[in-house]
């Protein structure tokens, strides 16, 4: 080997070594990740351990330069320590002399010693400790919605300085109502979907779950005066076929009938009863695992048909039945014995004339044998009341954030919700619940309510910006979304003021309701224009953003298209009726064909973005109660013309 070759090889190795050494040197100047320990007490309650786990997860989702460890033993290593709990449950909080404030069992606290890089996150109770963790997550930029979390668009450098708070709720029992009635509602949701929702509600600091039970539901088997309850069904006992000319088949994966996902495979009666009771018991257990209390809310004057003869003064379809002490005691004790985790049985007592709130009477487990709720015998008188009354013992105020007759449409009533919530708190109510029929567009309203229950000074506009400017990282997009919500509120108010049943779901919702030869009201166009502007603002905002908010806004925008198609179908049906009355069958057929196309597009648009069983249930209902009757009416006219 010649000298020049040896020299060349030596030179190449020297260059490589220099590069490697330079890389090592430069790498050593990069700051190492902050070592962060999340420490719970050695005998921490399960909720405090969950809080520590959630806090560790939160830090990793927000910061890009952290090495997070969670446990009960402190590692001897430099870094930041976050103690979880309170001075009684975590020795680290007591030992480090944090200035821990005096709080109630629901008060949440973060205190810090920045110089020593020590922080304490918690509350007086394990549930409050969990809420403190989620509030910290909120202040670090995570937004908790009904459908899931939206993380910050970009992670940032670790910094917990200047984050301290002590917060007490202004509403102590913050309830969420679920299950309800209708294929489009939470009644259709399976166990896993409900459990995920309960987890999201805990993040939004709700602490009471209300299971709204209908008399036809299969969750309770009991006897009364020799009669055994045998009714056990969903959706008012209706069945929705998914075969033949159904629109939106892609949403159902080839199923022949719309079914409840938890019970689709159970056929034997004994198996179904066991599965149905396991379902409800699992919901109760899930709620309690997050520190929630649980209630069932029953219809005060409805019972399963088989009890008609056993109840004095009832008919084959019992509805307005008085609640005798015997009946009440039988029902409540049956619920409590079947479900040991249940805290309350409740009954709707009365509802305001404007339907913005209802008063619910509650019976605690320990009072099941002796407490009989006082229910208004004359609901007509009760319904005349609009001003919120003072609370009575064991009562809850149910705050309506939606109109049931508008369930299929995007809607918001934020101004009315704000006024009602503020009036309720001022009147002394400490137990308030909310519960839309399903998720749909209610994330913004629930975000507002969940924040305002802790701080009544929160305004809907500020809450909106807190949600959308944070999740989109784009204030212009947030402003567009707020403008869109004003249009949505205008449309909602127009329909409620002029025709609350315009789009009420159920048999006859399109043909029977709208095939009438009456002039088209001028306000229809106003509502359609408002919905159009709402949809436009959604698409404008959605196109300008990235991150977790983008698919949410796309879903909302497609739902905006969906409602415009349906309103177009309603108008065409009315025009067809007018044409037929005028003797112009050909024109009537043209209008019905236009209505059929709009209805098809409406359902197909919804199937493009169907995300949950409620969406799929709405598709099934629209096929059964709008599309197929419309096809039949068109066929009738075609036969008459021929």
What does this structure look like?
This protein has 642 residues and is α/β, with parallel strands linked by helices. It folds into 3 domains: 31-167, Chitobiase/beta-hexosaminidase domain 2-like (Chitobiase, domain 2); 173-234 and 268-458, TIM Barrel (Alpha-Beta Barrel); 481-641, no CATH class. It is 45% helix and 13% strand. It has 17 helices and 17 strands. It has helices at 3-29, 46-62, 91-95, 126-139, 191-203, 269-289, 325-338, 379-383, 414-426, 443-452, 460-472, 475-498, 511-514, 522-543, 549-581, 585-609, 613-641; strands spanning 34-40, 66-71, 80-84, 108-113, 118-123, 143-145, 148-150, 165-167, 173-179, 208-212, 223-224, 227-228, 293-298, 344-351, 357-364, 395-399, 431-434. The strands form 4 sheets. Strands 9-10-13-14-15-16-17 form a 7-stranded mixed barrel. Strands 2-1-3-5-4-8 form a 6-stranded mixed beta sheet. The chain has a two-stranded antiparallel sheet with strand order 6-7. Helix 2 packs parallel to helix 4 (126-139), helix 15 packs antiparallel against helix 16 and helix 16 (585-609) runs antiparallel to helix 17 (613-641). It is globular. The protein starts with a helix and ends with a helix. Mean pLDDT is 89; it is low at 15-30, 313-322 and 377-384.
